[in-house]
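Shipment paperwork, digital attachment
Item: protein structure file
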Amino acid sequence: MICISGIPWKFPRAHCGSGLSVGEPKQVGSCGGSWNGKWNGGFLSKSARQIYRVRAVRTAEGVGEGTSEFSLDWRHLVGEREEAKAVVSQFLRSRGFSASVATRTLKNATLFTAHLLGILHSQHRARYLAGEELGTEEIQGTLLPYLESLAAKYGRGTPEVIVSFPDVPAPWTGGDVLYSITTDSEGQEKVIEVNLAECPALLGHCIHGKLPAAVSYCLSIGMTSEQINDVIQRFPAFAHYSVDNKIMKVIDYVLGMGCCPTSIPKIIMKRPQLFGCSVEENLRPTARFLESNGVEPEKWAKIMVNFPQILTYSRKKLQLVIDFLLEIGIPPATVGRVLSRFPHLVGYSLEAKLRPMAMYFKLIGIPDFSLVVIRSPQTLGLSLEKNIKCTVEFFLGLGYSIEQVAVLVNRFPQILGLNVENNLLPKWKFFIKMRRKHSELIDFPQYFGYSLEKRIRPRNAILESRGVTWTLNRMLSTTDQGFQTHLDKCDGALAAADQIRHAAKVASEESVVL
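Attachment content:
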């Protein structure tokens, strides 16, 4: 038996078996240990010392009787924790779970991570007694079989099992299928079948074989069981929201903002937390605050469908974002329009994302960052390293000056979000092939926003076949019908010119004869 002072490890029988037996008492000689210290919500308490004294009680199967002590550097424990988390993340991804699900799972899996460390220390006891670290392959080899056993038992419910540890949700034993009787818009009863095997997140929320009222309501408004399962997996509390006292009140308020009933499922899937907020204490005051800063009431329907999270942020957070927009030169009357067009920006960190971006534009000599934001607020959602810097450096590498790049960006801010390798470079190469002047891109940077294969190349081929050259703007900005109209006029002008030249030639020949 191993007792580690100050470290919250509890080794259940799951370390040796394939199931997940939680909270069972352990006996000396089994692969386990005991608590020796109190859990305070973190991996290591703040008062934990750098070196932990670990007392190992050698059993008859060990090297002999008696006790011995060895030192374990806490940094090694932190390293093992990160290794264990990496194994879990890779395992979930290999099982078809998205990166976001894996990240959310690990963020809320502190107890399970400690449980995995217990497995390592239990199965590699001799190594730790000798003061040796485990390598990555050894950690993977120890933990993967255990994770495989969990996945074999719980399937798509594995992330919930990890987050819920040690209170693993018990499977519903009454069958794999439950039924929900709902009423449609015409008052007709409708029976909806829910396969729990495909919706493992619902298992722990079914009471006496009945679906929660919130789940039944979601089914009645057209959400699929898979969509509801995803909502519950991301935000379990939603399953227990009162339909009458919470969900319906929020829905009535959202419909009053102009949203159509068919948009409600989308809003639930994007931000289920919204339906736990008080309309009078949270949502309505927040909406009024944003309206006082320029958000037009008629824009709420579109805002709520695109980014319902905006009403769940604190007044302080919203004010900080508004202050930032004013700082970079956005006129107060325009702040609301920027927020309406790109409400996602209220979710970004000022210090980690927004301010560094504004500072970068200032450093490279592009002073009109406010104009960029006004014309394309989505620019604030781009990655400074992966999008903006790469694009600026691309054009500087082509020989354009920073002043010319500033003009490009101001005239067509969306250019910053275009991929260099897959978009800008192929179009640049074709631009060179057309033998046009570099200055044409300064005049019409929107060139990069058109499809190379569907618009640029075909229209250029048509013009070349007629021996004419148009500006990029004229060639690309018109609709197909407009392009053909201009082309017909051009053909008519060319025909008239040919007739004039022919007549002049005939007249010249006749004068020679005379």
